[in-house]
Amino acid sequence: MARKIETGPVPAAWLDPVYRWSAIALVAIVWLSSAIFGAYIIAHYMGSLANGDAGAWNSTLPHLYVAGSLAANIGIGVHFLLGAVLLLLGPVQLIAGVRNRWPRVHRWIGWSYTIAAFVTGAGGTFYILARGTTGGWVMDLGFGLYGALMMLAAAQTLRHAIARRLDRHRGWAIRLFALAIGSWLYRMQYGFWFLMFGTWGHASDFRGWFDMVMVFFFFVPNLLVAEAFIRSRGESVSVPVRAGGALVLAAAAVLVALATWTFTTKFWGPAILERIV
Questions:
Q1: Rounded distance, CA 122 to CA 128, Å?
Q2: What distance in Å separates the CA atoms of residue 94 and residue 107, rounded to the nearest whole number?
Q3: 26 near 32, Cβ under 8 Å?
Q4: Burial of 54: CB neighbours in 10 Å, binned 0-12, 13-18, 19+
Q5: Chain center to CA of 148
Q6: Contact 149/2 with Cβ under 8 angstroms?
Q7: Distance between CA atoms of 90 and 173, rounded to whole angstroms?
Q8: CA neighbours within 13 Å on the CB side: how many for 79?
Q9: What's the pTM?
Q10: Which of 73-87, 123-137, 173-187, 204-218 has the lowest mean pLDDT?
Q11: In this predicted model, what pLDDT tens digit does every residue of 66-96 receive, in sequence order?
Q12: How far is C-alpha 20 from the chain's CA centre?
């Protein structure tokens, strides 16, 4: 009897290295860019607080700091500080070498990361409930949904890790990372828009049509890219899906690299140097 040969959707041989290096390039540039932005957050927001000039928080987004509103100020301060921690720790968790060689380090960073992510989402949500946002109910809705998804992803990442459902754990960890870089992308996307189109669609109270789009755009596309990555990394996926995943990752890496160079040289770098010097 002839042996039955199973034929599955095996990706072309050249796709594996292309996909792998596209993913590595994206993670590397996101890590570098988010680390620079994390340093900017610490330099600008925490530096302003240390110098007794918390009102400088409002230079990037109006009404972040309001004198006399202690609870909301603490909430947004915790949100910013732990957000910087997330930007620095997140990419470490995605490195397979760290997971395989130092599993204990991966676990401890994972606990710190998921708890920080949950508290970051809770801090931002508490701020919205206590004071609301400058952009009105649309911004409240978008930012509130973002905070809720951050808490959900953090809880699911930790829950599946504890239960040793590692495949689901990794999927949720990728989603959590995609959400965690949202605050970084929010600034980058605004800066890129201003460089290309000026203030078209933007209002000083953040209630212009572009502002309304941005309260969702800074995290929804991230989740779509994360889903493409999660669904295209298995061995049984078809060639078109695998190729599409590689293309999305490569395009995202190029875009992030160009944007990082622009904003580091024009905005983040000078702000960091100002605090250091």
A1: 10
A2: 12
A3: no
A4: middle
A5: 14
A6: no
A7: 9
A8: 25
A9: 0.69
A10: 73-87
A11: 666 666 666 666 666 676 677 777 667 666 6
A12: 21
List the one residue out of 127, 44, 123, 134 whose CA is nearest residue 83: 123
Report in angstroms the alpha-carbon separations of 69 from 66, 77, 130, 158, 256.
6, 12, 9, 33, 36
Amino acid at 174: I
Please tell me whether residue 14 adopts helix, strand or coil conformation: coil
Which residues fall within 8 angstroms of residue 101, CB to CB, at 6 or more apart?
A: none
pLDDT digits (tens, 9 = 90+) for 147-174: 999 999 999 999 998 998 888 888 898 8
Say which residue the tokens 């996926």 belong to. 237
Contacts 24+ apart (CB under 8 A), 232-236: 232/19, 233/19, 235/11, 236/8, 236/9
Q: Is the dihedral of CA 58, 260, 43, 38 positive or negative?
A: positive
What's at 124, amino acid-wise?
G
